[in-house]
């Protein structure tokens, strides 16, 4: 089966030629795919052609297999099913400027961060560019008629820079005319800090917002929760961030999850501010989303406020990230994990 979802109109045109079809079918198929249609719904294609394509190709490689809607806000958490039986998560959030979809880039993750549920069983495989696009197409189908996805954040399961080529191809698809119409200015990519790839990304010349999961003011603390910190010291990560700002003109966002007893003291805020001084950046404070399997504690509201105030006093732009969908296993990898464990338990019973 050939996955057509990750192909550009030019590639689909070539594909049609190879199959002995008129070349103009390529652009037609591209439009349909990006509108979320499967072969059955491609109504301007002859029936026999739709039937033929169904036998040899895949148009929609992702489907919604489960979904949780928050009672607290408009957030929807999806469990997306892939053709090989794997599943990944996505979260749809409703902000005043439109819908943002948080997508996964890998099944699992191999970065091993101590607070994260996605990495508990390692990385199973990379997602293809078509599967990443497929997550958006699913959310658009869910919103059918009402609205569509306007912004995309690569902050679900997986390390996007560990799946670099597919992510770049995905970005190219977003920019195609007649596609899902999401400009790269509306895209954020979050990384745990794969330094060489951060330099590569800066060279692509794309207006993508770079988010970096820092979670610590120094290497000693960072190494406690993030194994990657032993490979790339924080100075190198920050140098790569400065380069990104220089090359793209876009400020970098730092993610900082406050973990009780680890990185949330006043002195940590002061140290963080001194290291970020002079950089065009913004700090996003995230109260830790406690994961059952991880024995790390969250922090009080007071601690968040104190940390935030210290950064602001030291002229570092910072906000507390709004927690959305807290009642629906909002944190990375939690819903997939719950589902996998339930399936295993069912398997044992059967
Ligand atoms: N691999 C990428 C993107 C995926 S995670 C990265 O590391 O940035 C998206 C963000 O959620 C990261 O900042 C990650 O560190 C954070 N995160 C993961 N688990 C969390 C948890 N339990 N509580 C708070 N933030 C968490």
Structure description:
The protein is of the alpha/beta class and 350 residues long. It has two domains: 57 residues, DNA polymerase, domain 1 (Orthogonal Bundle); 288 residues, Aldolase class I (TIM Barrel, Alpha-Beta Barrel), CATH 3.20.20. Helices cover 37% and strands 21% of the residues. It has a ten-stranded mixed sheet with strand order 3-4-5-6-9-10-11-12-13-14. The protein has a two-stranded parallel ribbon with strand order 1-2. Strands 7-8 form a two-stranded antiparallel ribbon. α1 crosses α2 and α4 packs across α5. The model has no long low-confidence stretch (mean pLDDT 92). The site of S-adenosyl-L-homocysteine (SAH) has 18 residues, from β10 and β12. The site of S-adenosyl-L-homocysteine has 18 residues, from β10 and β12.
**Biggest sheet statistics:** 10 strands, mixed
How many distinct domains?
2
Distance between the termini: 32 Å
* Whole-number mean pLDDT: 92
Q: Which spans of ≥5 residues are poorly predicted at pLDDT below 50?
A: none
Second rung of CATH, namely the architecture of the largest domain: Alpha-Beta Barrel
Rg, nearest Å: 21 Å
Q: According to CATH, what is the topology of the largest domain?
A: TIM Barrel
Order of strands, widest sheet: 3-4-5-6-9-10-11-12-13-14
CATH superfamily of the largest domain: Aldolase class I
CATH class assignment of the largest domain:
Alpha Beta
Number of helices: 11
Name the quaternary structure: single chain
The percentage of residues in β strands lies in 15-25%
Order of helices and strands: EHHHEEEEEEEHEHEHEHHEHEHEH
